[in-house]
Amino acid sequence: MEVRLPGPVQAISLKDERNTILIEKMDCPTEEALIRKRLGGDEAVRELSFNLMQRKLTVVHAPGKLPEVLKALDEIGMRGVADQPAAQPGMDTNTILIEKMDCPTEEALIRQRLGKEDWVHDLTFNLLQRKLTVSHATGRLGDVLAALNEVGMGGLPERQDAPAKPAQPQSPRPAYWKLAIGGALALASELVALKLGDRSVGVIGLALAAIAVSGIETYRKGWIAVRHLNLNINALMSVAVTGAAILGQWPEAAMVMVLFAIAEMIEARSLDRARRAVEGLMSMAPEMAMVNTPSGWQDVHAAEVAVGATVRARPGERIALDGSVTSGTSAVDQSPITGESVPVDKATGDAVYAGTINQDGELEYRVTAAASNSTLARIAHAVQEAQATRAPTQRFVDTFSRYYTPAVFAVAIATAVIPPLAMGAEWFTWVYRALVLLVVACPCALVISTPVTVVSGLTAAARRGILIKGGVFLEQGHRLQVLALDKTGTLTQGRPVLTDVIAIDGNKPTLSTLATALAARSDHPVSRAVAEGLKDSEGLPEVSGFSALRGKGVEGRLNGVLYRLGNHRLVEESGACSDELESKLDALEQEGKTAVVLIEGTKALAIFAVADAVRPESRDAVAQLKQLGIRPVMLTGDNRHTAEAIAHQVGIGDVRSELLPEGKLKAIEELSAGGSTVGMVGDGINDAPALAKANIGFAMGAAGADTAIETADVALMDDDPRKLAEFVRLSKATRAVLWQNISIALGIKVAFLTLALTGQATLWMAVFADMGGSLVVVFNGLRLLRNKT
Prior knowledge:
The chain is an alpha+beta fold. It has 26 helices and 31 strands. β23 and β24 (561-566) form a beta hairpin. The longest helix is centred in the C-terminal third of the chain and has 35 residues, at 723-757. The model is unreliable at 1-10 and 161-174 (pLDDT under 50).
């Protein structure tokens, strides 16, 4: 439901722009009132429209004022992202691949350079994919690229029609020979210094050569950063090495620069592991597909195969594209998409997904989605998009780092100046300590720890068939206290099946044949369940005079005799009620089953009961949730008897039945009262209001369902409810690793700040501590990829 509220009393002109902004934190009238109060008095804002369900704010504003709107939202803690800004007049959006953008150091430099331009509307960074998405005034892409070149980053615009498996920028191959020569020269300067002293011509020459070979790139980046008043690690390291040289510590200056270059190379390689984990999702789909063309079967690039084409998958091959089987039978390993450990049997009409593995039979299938829009491609895209969002812990770390580096830099200057001037201390000693502080000042380990950990968690979840749409949901999962579960399709299989055949008067096989003949002519779900359950019946008689009795059942003549098959109401109308029959029907209803009766005249012949069968995994799933301290609640539109019967089978005590979508929404609001963190599990469409209101919305069985993948906070790709507990365990593991990394990074900083101030740390020790800390947190974050929860 969209609520349209008037903004300031301003006339709307044809030149005004309309932008829709996604605001994660806006989900109730409290935030709406806060935003309305802040933007309502802005002369540039013409109109405000709120959609709390979708967390969207539509703003009509004066031309070019989107940055001011976003800034105003940021000021009140309601940070938003423009939704599809490229569609807005006067604005373009481009994604740029930047090979040199490895860590927050480069991100801060780019943000500082582009953030000050009034024609830049929004910047979104994805460090692990080395991608920058820029929303800017139309026609200013050239200026964006020029600005990136100015800060030494460069960049290549990503094609808008990129194939399903786009080429990712690769880390430049490290110049090992430079590091080897630089290291040899630095070591030589150390050895020569033992004989001739640190300030001899030979030592200075060797040290300068080592710095030139291994540190020119660091100096270049450092100079760019200094010009833009950015205190990144390259600037700090350049100052530290230059300072050491000025103090006459030439061998140490050379060795520090070489060690830094080596550590940078190792860190870049370790970050590549995280990148490859994400890119591996897309690499599961083969590049080529065997396609039936007018010239016969030919290998064609998957990206070029059109929807509707017929493709063949041989035994042992990965399926190249999403499709529907047209011929053949086989078992398919769907674990890359759904996380299912057991192969699924496929026959004509069944769906197959790109990246899954055909087992033992040959299949031909009709392509239902282009390579760039396959289920696998959408999963990979969603994971990549999720990386670009800032999780709560990451936002905290980013804020902390903005103050940390300038603070330590100020402490370093004070350390170098105050003791010599105020206390007559030795300049050399305190300037050297200040240089050590500069090396420790960069928060690289702290800042890089969160995105690596979060993306490892997101990727690990995707491998298990759990698609998480952002770090905020991955982090929030461990806080879940209540989980509301829809019954149909979540705890049950979502389709009725025949459970009971009770003969009252006559032979069961004969009665089953009569019932099947009637049920097969109806398209009602209950009739279809009866026909499917009795499909082995043989020699079905012809039905004449068939008629559907609205709301009651069906009737028709079989071998000249009129039979009826229907519900309790039809039984009463036919005069077939009896105490014995009523007792049997009541018992079936108490078990949550729907009963239909076969009637001849006024005589009941047989009862056929159907029910939406409980998933075999549901009871175990509920038990696991309880073990994790989460209270399961059933929300369903079904009747009380059926709901309570299903709840009893799976172990849920809190049952709320006969709920319309509005009733489910109200139930979520009640469960959230008192600040409880509540999740809602549904199909992503019918339960949309409740899913949107819950802290985390889960969609079941999302494989191949565009809407579920696009709208849910968390999409479970198969129908196994046990993945709910798996998600919570992964969330707990991710949170543990995040805080381990923060503790490690801050612990190392505190220790070396103390050692530096007391004169017990050297420059090369500080380099080892800083870069070593980065490597520790990166590898600790990557552990999540191996975590089996």
